[in-house]
Amino acid sequence: MIKVGDTLPSATLQEYSEVEGEGCSIGPNAVDVAKASAGKTIALFALPGAFTPTCSAKHVPGYVQHFDDFKAAGVDEIWCVSVNDAFVMGAWARDQKTGAKVRMLADGSADFAKATGLTLDLNGRGMGLRSNRYSMLVKDGKVATLNVEAPGKFEVSDADTLLAQARG
Predict the structure, then answer these.
(1) 157 near 133, Cβ under 8 Å?
(2) Which entry of 55, 106, 146, 166 is annotated as an active-site residue?
(3) Residue 24 known to be catalytic
(4) Is the pLDDT score of 12 beyond 90?
């Protein structure tokens, strides 16, 4: 499992863009994790799935709500990573009104989740291999803090906890 001090794994996530801008075309665009995190402070949180109850009611809204607070604490970007395809993440971004506040990044084949060692086996519930629920503060591609939830819990990966860590 990834730990504090480790570099984020080499992986490519997908991001659905509805408008062209800054070199991004409309539709799914590849996001190289190493390049996208280089020289930045990122509040990254991952969750089991788009449109799921806790994720939609609590997890994403907290990060959207605290966007300005994260910026004031020196965070450059907020990333939400989930094992869904880019089209689902794009639809969820619209539903959650994340706008330019939270980058909704798809890990469709769970490659990033596997590489971090933070997978969640939900085959018994018909959802396949997913990402565990966690948050991390990433500085220049390295994990500065890591908060992994116990199964079925939502206690340490919330926006308030990561924001307190970002404020140091």
Answers:
(1) yes
(2) 55
(3) no
(4) yes
